[in-house]
């Protein structure tokens, strides 16, 4: 459902008023006509504005994408030039300068291989500041399957655009006023970036490529063959074409190679005449972009494509059926599911793909935009439930990267970027193996995680591996040389040493689980023992984790952290929370420090390392505090409005957290297949699983005031621990809670054991 205030008003007014009045309202707001007169389905609860604006809650860095689930190329209006940091659409902006086929996954990651189209009247305007046109959100309609906007073209004229999409392609319709020089500009590259464009008047086609990779400086090597190719086809024959580079326009010329390159096609339009456009994108070749068009958009029926995309989204959303949710909660939930189902992004094209790891073309499957430091926590776990049909290919894609580039990536965009720490692809592999996914090469997976765990990156002893350090070798587990020697990464040898030591310990636990599953007992025992290295950083004098130097001395308390501090990382050994409790002296001390953590404002939900913190009280024997904290975060840091995400969505992780909060359980140690119980948000959620079973979460007496679990049953039997497992969900059945307004002692006697590696 589009979230504009005008549309919401129309829906409220439309109830019970004469049809003639409705027709009059539709004539005022034509962009909303189709939505008003059609029945609402699950996808229509999506509010793509959520996360696209800044406000008291925060800024999610989200854009209103028209795309398929996991689509390679996403389409969105461009209200400002793409930048890093920054994205192309911002809710507060009031002009549009183009419609971009983007591959940018997050505000802190750059775009690559993009293409921009913009309808224009009166003259060709190549500069983004010259071509932008005003709009208002009341004249805009945004859904995952279709975007529509009416732009102010000056002198009382309107210029409207509609966009829908497939995996690699898009349809656009530009409706012009009467004009002798209506043009569609195609921007291949932005200022300062060399690119190519070709305009063919006879075929009515504009082709070209864009080699820009904004994040290229964060990777270990150049990719001379990298290009984002595009083919733009027009249904109507243009009257003329031209190309441009920098500030120079060349009417009638068909080809250009240069900086800020692009082309245009001109039309003489009648009032209200629509120019139909279809765009194919590819990272393989121009011919592949044309082939993608032939396979995905063989005709010109815009409505059929939009409806097909709508059905695709509704098919995915059928995974979760809500009962007892308010309208706002439905908007938040299905928007979160939409955001989570965008990533990782498809990078193969009908059985072939360009590899950004060896710069060659291969047969097979590829995905990119794995923001793994963020998404290993909950996003991947959600996909094993909501999109299990993709998991084998996603793991195969990571293993292809390993074979072609030497390592599994940590943040491919689309190649290595050396952003963030640890090798949490190990977690994704472990979770997939332990949950029984078999459609990828497990022996190759073992080779990949073993290299992560045992092979230091090139030049490891001479580099500090600074955050976002440019032009380094692939970082992998930076400082692994020192960890092997000391049992931890010393702060005087490598940056972010304490965070890396703790996160590497978790990854070692993941490697151990794969070894156990593959029958490698000695390797299992070795890595399980090494997964306890995090304990070397616990300072009993302070009760916190702390970085150490190579001589064993304690470093400064604020040294050695990644996007956090001692408060964030003291509880970060996800695989051994009971062991952390023992270090602290027992549950009472553990819970007291957690209380201080929350009371002191140290819980930063806008960043991923804090996402598991509310669930830690389950381990400490105070699950009612988990219930209260989860409910507080879910109801104050998520909302049905543009600033309704507290922080960068980071390829669906922020949204996945909400989905699990709504369900009432969360994968604190994601690779384990265990889910800690929180506080379900709705009366009932039915999960329709790919295996044909249904798993239902029922919360009796659930209300805003009733956040506390009084009792619980799993398939009719009492559930007395605050945890369920992957198998419980996959077998189907019912998880039933009775909710109340006061804390209870439900599940407070649970005492899980720490890791015993002896």
Write the layout of secondary structure elements.
Layout: H1 5-14, H2 19-28, H3 33-36, E1 74-78, E2 95-96, E3 98-102, E4 115-121, H4 128-131, E5 133-134, E6 140-142, E7 147-154, E8 157-165, E9 169-176, E10 179-187, E11 194-200, E12 205-210, E13 228-234, E14 240-245, E15 248-251, E16 255-259, E17 261-269, E18 273-282, H5 286-296, H6 302-317, E19 320-323, H7 327-340, E20 345-346, E21 352-354, E22 361-363, E23 367-368, H8 372-375, H9 379-386, H10 388-405, H11 425-434, H12 442-454, H13 480-486, H14 497-517, H15 521-530, E24 538-539, E25 544-545, H16 566-569, H17 577-584, H18 587-599, H19 616-619, H20 623-636, H21 653-663, E26 665-666, E27 674-677, E28 684-688, E29 694-700, E30 708-714, E31 717-718, E32 723-725, H22 726-730, E33 733-740
Parallel strand pairs: 29-33
Antiparallel strand pairs: 1-3, 2-5, 3-4, 4-10, 6-7, 7-8, 8-9, 9-18, 10-17, 11-12, 11-16, 12-13, 13-18, 14-15, 14-17, 19-28, 20-23, 21-22, 24-25, 26-27, 27-32, 28-29, 30-31, 30-33
Tell me what you see in this structure.
With 758 residues, the protein is of the alpha+beta class. It folds into 3 domains: 39 residues, no CATH class; 230 residues, Beta-galactosidase, Chain A, domain 5 (Distorted Sandwich); 421 residues, GH92 mannosidase domain (GH92 mannosidase fold). Strands 6-7-8-9-18-13-12-11-16 form a 9-stranded antiparallel beta sheet. Strands 1-3-4-10-17-14-15 form a 7-stranded antiparallel beta sheet, with no helix packed on it. The protein starts with a helix and ends in an 18-residue tail after the last strand. The relative contact order is 0.09. The N terminus is likely disordered.
């Amino acid at each position: 459902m589009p979230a504009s205030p005008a549309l919401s008003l129309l829906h409220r007014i439309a109830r019970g008023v004469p049809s003639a009045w409705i027709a009059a309202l539709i004539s005022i707001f034509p962009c909303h006509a189709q939505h008003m007169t059609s029945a609402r389905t699950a996808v229509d609860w999506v509010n793509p504005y959520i996360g696209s604006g800044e406000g008291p809650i925060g800024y999610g860095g989200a854009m209103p994408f028209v795309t398929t689930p996991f689509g390679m190329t996403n389409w969105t209006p461009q209200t400002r030039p793409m930048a890093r940091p920054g994205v192309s659409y911002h809710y507060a902006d009031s002009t549009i300068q183009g419609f971009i086929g983007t591959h940018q996954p997050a505000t802190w990651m750059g775009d690559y291989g993009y293409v921009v189209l913009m309808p224009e009247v009166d003259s060709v305007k190549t500069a983004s500041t010259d071509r932008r046109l005003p709009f208002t959100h009341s004249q805009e309609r945004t859904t995952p399957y279709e975007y529509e906007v009416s732009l102010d073209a000056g002198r009382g004229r309107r210029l409207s655009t509609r966009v829908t999409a497939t995996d690699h392609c898009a349809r656009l319709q530009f409706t012009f006023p009467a004009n002798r020089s209506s043009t569609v500009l195609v921007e291949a590259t932005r200022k300062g970036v060399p690119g190519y464009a070709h305009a063919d008047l006879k075929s009515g086609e504009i082709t070209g490529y864009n080699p820009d990779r904004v994040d290229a400086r964060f990777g270990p090597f150049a990719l001379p063959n990298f290009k984002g190719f595009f083919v733009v086809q027009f249904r109507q024959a243009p009257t003329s074409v031209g190309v441009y580079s920098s500030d120079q326009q060349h009417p009638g010329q068909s080809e250009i190679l240069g900086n800020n390159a692009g082309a245009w096609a001109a039309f003489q339009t009648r009032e209200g005449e629509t120019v139909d456009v279809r765009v194919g994108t590819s990272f393989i070749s121009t011919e592949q972009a044309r082939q993608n068009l032939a396979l995905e958009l063989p005709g010109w029926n815009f409505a059929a494509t939009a409806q097909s995309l709508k059905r695709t989204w509704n098919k995915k959303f059928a995974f979760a059926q809500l009962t007892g949710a308010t309208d706002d909660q439905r908007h938040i939930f299905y928007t979160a599911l939409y955001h989570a189902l965008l990533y990782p992004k498809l990078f193969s094209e009908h059985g072939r793909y360009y590899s950004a790891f060896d710069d060659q073309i291969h047969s097979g499957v590829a995905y990119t935009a794995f923001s793994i430091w963020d998404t290993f926590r909950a996003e991947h776990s959600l996909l094993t439930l909501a999109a299990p049909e993709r998991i084998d290919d996603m793991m195969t894609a990571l293993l292809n990267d390993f074979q072609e580039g030497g390592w599994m990536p940590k943040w491919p965009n689309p190649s290595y970027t050396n952003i963030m720490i640890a090798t949490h692809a190990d977690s994704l592999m472990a979770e997939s193996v332990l949950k029984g996914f078999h459609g990828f090469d497990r022996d190759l997976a073992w080779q990949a995680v073993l290299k992560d765990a045992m092979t230091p990156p090139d030049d490891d002893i001479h580099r500090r591996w600074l955050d976002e350090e440019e032009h380094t070798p692939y970082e992998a587990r930076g400082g692994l040389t020192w960890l092997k020697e000391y049992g931890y990464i010393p702060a005087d040898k490598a940056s972010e040493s304490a965070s890396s030591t703790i996160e590497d310990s978790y990854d070692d636990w993941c490697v151990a689980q794969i070894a156990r599953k593959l029958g490698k007992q000695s390797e299992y025992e070795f890595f399980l023992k090494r997964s306890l290295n995090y304990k070397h950083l616990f300072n009993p004098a302070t009760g916190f984790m702390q970085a150490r130097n190579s001589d064993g001395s304690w470093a400064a308390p604020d040294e050695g952290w990644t996007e956090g501090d001692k408060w964030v990382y003291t509880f970060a050994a996800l695989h051994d929370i009971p062991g952390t409790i023992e270090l602290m002296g027992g549950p009472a001390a553990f819970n007291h420090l957690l209380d201080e953590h929350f009371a002191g404002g140290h819980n930063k939900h806008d960043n991923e390392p804090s996402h598991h913190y509310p669930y830690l009280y389950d381990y400490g024997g105070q699950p009612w505090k988990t219930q209260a904290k989860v409910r507080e975060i879910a109801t104050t840091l998520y909302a049905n409005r543009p600033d309704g995400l507290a922080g960068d969505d980071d390829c669906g992780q922020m949204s996945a957290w909400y989905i699990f909060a709504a369900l009432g359980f969360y994968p604190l140690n994601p690779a384990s297949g265990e889910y800690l119980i929180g506080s379900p948000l709705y009366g009932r959620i039915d999960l329709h699983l790919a295996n044909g079973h249904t798993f239902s979460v029922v919360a009796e007496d659930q209300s805003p005031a009733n956040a506390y679990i009084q009792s619980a049953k799993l398939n009719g039997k009492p559930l007395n621990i605050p945890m369920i497992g992957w198998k419980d969900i996959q077998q189907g059945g019912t998880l039933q809670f009775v909710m109340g307004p006061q804390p209870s002692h439900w599940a407070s006697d649970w005492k899980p054991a720490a890791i015993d590696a002896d």
